[in-house]
From TrEMBL:
Signal peptide: none
Domain Glycosyl transferase family: residue ranges: 57-230
Entry keywords, A to Z: Carboxypeptidase, Cell shape, Cell wall biogenesis/degradation, Glycosyltransferase, Hydrolase, Membrane, Multifunctional enzyme, Peptidoglycan synthesis, Protease, Transferase, Transmembrane, Transmembrane helix
Record localization: Membrane
Domain annotation Penicillin-binding protein transpeptidase: ranges: 313-585
Protein name: Penicillin-binding protein, 1A family
Pathway assigned in UniProt: Cell wall biogenesis; peptidoglycan biosynthesis
GO MF annotation: an example: peptidoglycan glycosyltransferase activity
SUPFAM superfamilies xref list: beta-lactamase/transpeptidase-like, Lysozyme-like
Upper taxonomic lineage: Bacteria, Pseudomonadati, Thermodesulfobacteriota, Desulfuromonadia, Geobacterales
A Pfam family it matches: Transgly
Cellular component terms (Gene Ontology): membrane; outer membrane-bounded periplasmic space
Record field: catalytic activity: Preferential cleavage: (Ac)2-L-Lys-D-Ala-|-D-Ala. Also transpeptidation of peptidyl-alanyl moieties that are N-acyl substituents of D-alanine; [GlcNAc-(1->4)-Mur2Ac(oyl-L-Ala-gamma-D-Glu-L-Lys-D-Ala-D-Ala)](n)-di-trans,octa-cis-undecaprenyl diphosphate + beta-D-GlcNAc-(1->4)-Mur2Ac(oyl-L-Ala-gamma-D-Glu-L-Lys-D-Ala-D-Ala)-di-trans,octa-cis-undecaprenyl diphosphate = [GlcNAc-(1->4)-Mur2Ac(oyl-L-Ala-gamma-D-Glu-L-Lys-D-Ala-D-Ala)](n+1)-di-trans,octa-cis-undecaprenyl diphosphate + di-trans,octa-cis-undecaprenyl diphosphate + H(+)
Species for this entry: Geotalea uraniireducens (strain Rf4) (Geobacter uraniireducens)
């Protein structure tokens, strides 16, 4: 320990010499009268934007991005006295450096046998935070001291204290007293209580440890140090000290649902402009269900991490009747990445686009029972380039019904179907559902080559769940302006997108995806909760999707890497995204009655022979009920088998999985 004394004495000697030199150099000088504010002045009537969920539960606040300045007359005198007491009790007596403080620090250094930081005045701290680094060197201390004395010549003590309080760091991203008071108490500085002032005065010593959201024992201990020092200096009485120690202080807790709250913020800016965030004064009722939002964040985080810590994901859940955005999660950890993958990440949806092609085909009069052949066809792409789409595992299965082709996600049949209805027609159809696509992608649209966001894809599925209506996703239900005492309602916006019959038949086809198709792992769930959905897996296993719905809730999941790269064999929508979807939906639907999709009057049911697609006869070996848009059902009976027409219901046949594996493996 004693080996340290020479360097300590040397450091102290430099400081003492500097202090004596500076004191001798002090001469009266003119004091600055101009404004010292380096940021806009804090508006006197500002209040933050508060966000509540659809049930009125507090979610969080939307804070201004700009830093604001608070004049000294708006900072409580108690806070000023508390800061001076605990940080620099001789602030009003010294000229920038405190010789007595340096001497006290020297004694402590010698006793402890190590170099401490003690002895810095408020002016020196301000200089260090505003202009210098925090390195502990003699050169830096000399420069700090010289600048502190110059500051004392140029500015009044009142101005220096004002600058200090507006520049110091208070933890959790809060620079200056304006941000600190807003963050921790949702107040303006002049509204602080003495107990709150005592807490804030102790923060600058160690913002990470003593900020109001830190460990209660640490925060309370530091507050007690402040009050004890104030009592020692007779700024407060011992009785006042005890009273302030016993007062309970309530902090504004950090907001919940950061991705969703950020989306609310963006919607407010879209509606009112950027300045609305700085003006504040709003109470926003969001369409969010806070319980579902918390469930979504937890389910996505745990589900994605279970696969790989490097993966990312997103979840969007809507009420298909109103378009209300019940939950939205843009990543697995907002604190590490605030980028919202639910609304802004554009990725190829793969086979998740196919239900829209099949729905468009139904609107054109093509039926779910129609038979198609999946023998590959070649297409001229121009420039002597030939494109021949293949099934996921390059298999060929011959003839399949359109229903089976969708359940097994057959690529060749889907391309042929898109060719039949026409790319322009399909692009227009998709646009009506809310999904913008580019016609120049041509027939490759059938394989999901155009990039979409998860949010837009889920929105496009909504008409399938609600009987053909496009519901604009609604993030904000209503807004109350506290300043004007006025309400602004945001009613649901609903427009027709496709016929109720086409929506119902497509949904019945997508039910098979979860029974014997690429998401057959969800069969038990679909039996408990009537539901429909579709997997999506992009080329080289880069993106895994699942969008599924019941009559009450529609939810989409995306999983992949931010920088697209293969996830490895087995990284499919059925194996990766569907299980996350099921864990979320099981809890989301636990308190809701299990209801099926209502059949519109414009849909008829016919018992058919699935091998031919015609109404079944008594001698047909296989029979099943098929749904048709009224007027599109076949009128002649099965040409292959005799006997009278019958209407039995039998399970669908089992075919190999056209995405590359046998049906026992999900996609």
């Amino acid at each position: 320990m004693f080996s340290h004394f020479p360097s300590l004495l040397k450091e102290a000697l430099y400081s003492m010499i500097l202090g004596l030199f500076l004191v001798l150099c002090l001469v009266p000088s003119a004091r600055a009268q101009e404004s010292i504010a380096t940021y806009p002045l804090l508006p006197s009537a500002y209040t933050s934007i508060k966000v509540f969920d659809r049930e009125g539960r507090f979610v969080g606040r939307i804070m201004p991005e700009k830093r604001y300045w608070v004049s000294i007359d708006r900072i409580p005198a108690f806070l000023q006295k508390a800061v001076v007491a605990v940080e620099d009790s001789r602030f009003y007596e010294h000229g920038g450096i405190d010789i007595r403080g340096i001497a006290r620090a020297l004694v402590k250094d010698v006793v402890k046998g190590k170099l401490a930081e003690g002895g810095s005045t408020i002016t020196q701290q301000l200089i260090k935070n505003k202009y210098l680094s925090g390195e502990k060197t003699i050169d830096r201390k000399l420069k700090e001291g010289l600048m502190a004395v110059e500051f004392e010549k140029k500015y009044t003590k009142k101005q220096i204290l004002e600058m200090y309080l507006n520049e110091i760091y208070y933890g959790n991203g809060a620079w200056g007293i304006a941000q600190a008071v807003r963050l921790y108490f949702d107040k303006r500085p002049e509204e602080l209580t003495d107990a709150e002032c005592a807490l804030l005065a102790g923060v600058p010593k160690n913002p990470g440890r003593y900020n109001p959201l830190g460990k209660p024992a640490n925060v309370a201990g530091r507050r007690d140090v402040v009050l004890k020092r104030m009592a020692e200096l007779k700024i407060i009485t011992p009785r006042q000290k005890q009273k302030l120690r016993g007062q309970r202080v309530t902090f504004t807790q950090p907001g919940q649902a950061p991705y969703y709250t950020a989306h609310v913020r963006n919607k407010l800016i879209e509606r009112y402009g950027k300045e609305i965030v700085e003006q504040g004064g709003l109470e926003v009722t969001a369409a969010m269900d806070l319980n579902l939002q918390k469930l979504a964040e937890k389910t996505l985080r745990e589900g994605v991490k279970r696969i790989s810590p490097q993966l990312q994901g997103a979840l969007v859940s809507l009420d298909p009747a109103t378009g209300d955005l019940l939950a939205a999660v843009g990543g697995v950890d907002f604190s590490k990445s605030g980028y919202d993958r639910a609304f802004y990440a554009r990725r190829q949806p793969g086979s998740a686009i196919k239900p829209l092609i099949y729905a468009a085909a139904l609107e054109k009069g093509i039926t779910a029972a129609s038979i198609w052949n999946d023998t590959p066809a070649a297409y001229n792409r121009g420039n002597n380039e030939i494109w021949q789409p293949l099934n996921y595992g390059r298999e060929q299965y011959g003839e399949l019904s359109l229903r089976q082709a969708l359940a097994y996600s057959n690529n060749v049949v889907t391309v042929k179907l898109l060719e039949t209805i026409g790319v322009p027609y399909f692009v227009d159809f998709a646009g009506k559902t809310g999904l913008p696509l580019r016609a120049q992608n041509g027939l490759s649209l059938a394989l999901g080559t155009d990039e979409v966001t998860l949010h837009d894809l889920v929105r496009a599925y909504t008409p399938l769940a609600n009987g053909g209506l496009r519901t604009e996703p609604r993030t904000i239900i209503r807004i109350y302006d506290r300043n004007r005492r006025a309400w602004a309602e945001n009613p649901p916006l609903v427009t027709p997108a496709l016929s109720p019959a086409a929506a119902f038949v497509t949904t019945r086809m997508l039910k098979d995806v979860m029974v014997y198709g690429t998401a057959k792992s969800l069969k038990k769930f679909s039996q408990e909760h009537p539901s429909a959905g579709k997997t999506g897996t992009t080329d080289d296993y880069r993106d895994a999707w699942f969008v599924g719905y019941t009559p009450q809730v529609i939810t989409g999941i995306w999983v992949g890497y931010d920088k697209p790269r293969p996830g490895g064999k087995g990284f499919t929508g059925g194996a990766v995204a569907a299980p996350i979807w099921e864990r979320f939906m099981r809890t989301a639907l636990s308190a809701r009655p299990a209801v099926d999709f209502p059949k519109p009057d414009t849909v008829v049911s016919v018992s058919i022979d699935p091998t031919t697609g015609y109404p079944a006869n008594a001698d047909c070996p296989e029979k099943r009920d098929e749904f048709y848009i009224s007027g599109t059902q076949p009128t002649s009976n099965c040409p292959k088998h005799g006997g009278d027409p019958l209407n039995p219901i039998t399970p669908p046949p089992t075919l190999p999985n056209a995405e590359g594996q046998q049906p026992v493996s999900s996609r």
